[in-house]
Structures are given as C-alpha cells and as structure tokens.
Amino acid sequence: MSNPNVKPEKAAGSSSFSALFASILIPVAIAIGILVFMFILGNPTNFENNDPKGHPHPGNYLGMMYKGGYLVPVLMGLMIIVICVIIERYITIRVAHGKGSVPKFVRSIKGHLDNNDINGALKACDAQRGSVANVIREGLRKYNEMSHIQGMEKDQKVLAIQKEIEEATSLELPMLEKNLVILATISSVATLMGLLGTVFGMIRAFSAIATAGAPDAVALSTGISEALINTALGISTSAIAIIAYNYFTTKIDGLTYGIDEAGFSLAQNFAAKH
Fold it and tell me: I need a labelling partner for 174 at 20 to 30 A (CA). Which of 56, 151, 230, 270 fits?
C-alpha cells in the first residue's frame, strides 16, 4: 500500500519551486531589461558624436533599439521572461514525459494487465518514470490492494481504483500547467505594450511634422523609430509566447490522454477479471 504522504509532499515541493521561480523571475527580468537598455543599447559609442540623443551610426541596431523609448526595456524584460519560462517548462515537461515513449509505455501496461502481471507493470512504471508512470503506479497499487480485499462489491473496488487514479492525476497535472499562465498573459500584454509604444512614437513623429517652419528631422526619425521598434518587439515577444504556450499545452494533453487511456484500461481489466 502506498504512503499517502509521499505524493502531496512531492506536489507541494514542485508547486513551491514554480511559485518561487515566477516571483523571482519577473522583477529580475525587468531589471535586466533596464540595465541592457541603459548600458548596452544606450552606450554612447552606438551614436554619432557619442551622443545618445543624436542619430545612431548607420546600421547600428543597438542604437536604433535605444531610440525605441522607455517601453523598450519593459518589452525586453517580457522577452526574457518568456524565454526563461520556456526553458523551465520544457525541462519540467520533459521530466514528466519519462524516459520512453508514452504510447509504448501504455501498451506495455495493457500487456502486463492482460497477463495478470502486476509486478511487471510496476517495474515498467519504475523504468519509465514521469507523470504518467507515477499515476499508473498508484493505480496499480490500488489495483493490487483491491484484489486482496474481501467483503466489497466489484463496482466499489473499481470506483476505488478510479478514485485513486483521479487523485494521483490531480497532483501531477498542476505541476505540468504551472507558469503557463505567464505565457498566456504575456502573449496579450506584449502586443498591447508594443501598440502603446507605437502610439507614443507616432505622437512624437506627428509633433515633429507639426513644428512651425521646417519639420524637426531628428524628432521625426526618433518618433518613427520608437513606433517601429516597439511594434517589432511586442509582436515578436507575443508570437514566441503563443507558439510556446500551444506547444506545451499540446504536450500536456498528450500526457493527459496517456493517463486517461491507461487508467481506463486498469479499471476495465479489474472489472473483467475480478
């Protein structure tokens, strides 16, 4: 019989790490964005006459990005957050996937159950590891426990096995979905921030055009640069976040499907053979 204290502790530990990761990442990423904006993009060597208020050297993209204005470091911070969350989620989901193919693992579990080889199925779970294996291991232990209990109806035993699988699943899935809300939020926020920067840039550009006499060429080019740079950063950050979010949700759906398929086979096998 499994120790009921193991799973909650594991889930709580993973949840605490993910929460700590997010709470530290966001302010650190914004701070890095500000520092890069001030000391790398705003380096005087990127500009003519070493004056950050003037034109950047032709072809100097760092200076051009600096002309995007004060929303650039915020957008850069959002990009850093997206990249870090992608790395963290990829590692987490990769570990949750286990060592081998999930469909192949599910088929092996079905084969062991058809042969009444519970120990072989448990060994397959130990070899596979990952979230699917963790859930099925708990279901197999409950399966073995119900096989030796007398005085319970078969339907009650099947329900007990299904409940054990559902409880184990409810502990594994939150760990997989943690921090995906950050990607979902940034996919919308980055676009809006880029649009806001574009509006600021266009305001500056039209103000330069409206100048009495000859238009202020420096202010006009600065406004256009601000508009275009913010648009590019916002759209690129949003696009990466959307692609990553869809990729990870697809991977999680695949793991969930594997859990559901193996859990259903476990319950049906018990109902047919006991």
Answer: 270
Q: How far is CA 164 from the centre of its chain?
A: 27
77 within 8 A of 30, measured Cβ to Cβ: yes
Q: Determine the Cα–Cα distance for residues 160 and 49; give it in Å rounded to an integer.
A: 77
3-state secondary structure of 216: coil
List CB contacts of 79: < 8 A, sequence separation 6 or more: 33, 190, 233, 236, 237, 240
Which residue type does 34 have?
I
* Torsion, CA 148, CA 149, CA 154, CA 155, rounded to 10: -120
CA gap 260, 87 in Å, rounded: 27
Any idea of the CA torsion for 225, 199, 71, 231, to the nearest 10 degrees?
-60
Please state, as a whole number, how many other Cβ atoms lie within 10 Å of the Cβ of residue 139: 29
The count of other CB atoms within 10 Å of the CB of residue 90 is 14
DSSP for 113-174, written as a single string: HHTT-HHHHHHHHHHH-HHHHHHHHHHHHHHHHHHT--S--HHHHHHHHHHHHHHHHHHHHH
Residue ranges per structural domain of the chain: 6-273
Q: What is the pLDDT of residues 119-150, one digit of tens each?
A: 899 999 999 988 889 999 999 999 888 888 88
**Average pLDDT of the residues in 25-33:** 94
pTM for the complete prediction?
A: 0.83
Furthest-apart CA atoms within the chain: distance in Å? 97
Contact between 179 and 191 (Cβ < 8 Å): no
